[in-house]
């Protein structure tokens, strides 16, 4: 979604089309190309890319690669934070290579991105009941991500840990700073653990019925909540950013990554509330 948003904003700046290189999903066991869930019919650059070999992460001599394959485009690789001035210098014919996980890359076209990423698929009766409850109760979304963050050694070393204290402190902050009685709607890839361990200052419900390809329904429900407590997860980032309430308060972890240098480019917008995490928290304690 971040990559699409950055590409869409670039295309709007130059009044050009956008094509998506979705070839990496062919070998991705965890993720699917899912933009069709938003009613989008994006053009995948299949025909154009047939004459291009895939751009690989370790490629260092891209100018030589372009000459060899006759590609007349500007190659822009995200190696770190890219300033607004440098973003403005990206031309109309460009190949964006990176994650682009920061609002700065599309903030000037935020309204168009929101419209493009509206979920338009029909909602089923079960999720409609949850949606009605969320709107009637002015719910606060809480997203807990565990799975690969607690079992994968690479992710454990890369990402900061949103420990239980983070969720309690975030919930207490909102309970003290909103006018309505707090009602929490918890979304998690481990709902059983969340229900057994989260102790929130108010009534809470745990959404556990949307799994697999139904993840889009969790995103729909999250974005309908009045306020948000996110994990350091792009899924909950988008659930909060796409929120329907213009006066929403979004609480996020103060650190996205463990490494301080890498964390300089974390995706948390400056107007979101940052709650500190426990130093060197053990992921297994989540």
Automatic annotation (TrEMBL):
Keywords of the record: Glycosyltransferase, Transferase
Domain of life, per lineage: Bacteria
GO molecular function: galactoside 2-alpha-L-fucosyltransferase activity
Any one Gene Ontology BP term: carbohydrate metabolic process
Membrane spanning stretches: none
GO cellular component: membrane
InterPro entries: Glyco_trans_11
Protein name: Glycosyl transferase family 11
Highest classification ranks of the organism: Bacteria, Pseudomonadati, Planctomycetota, Planctomycetia, Pirellulales
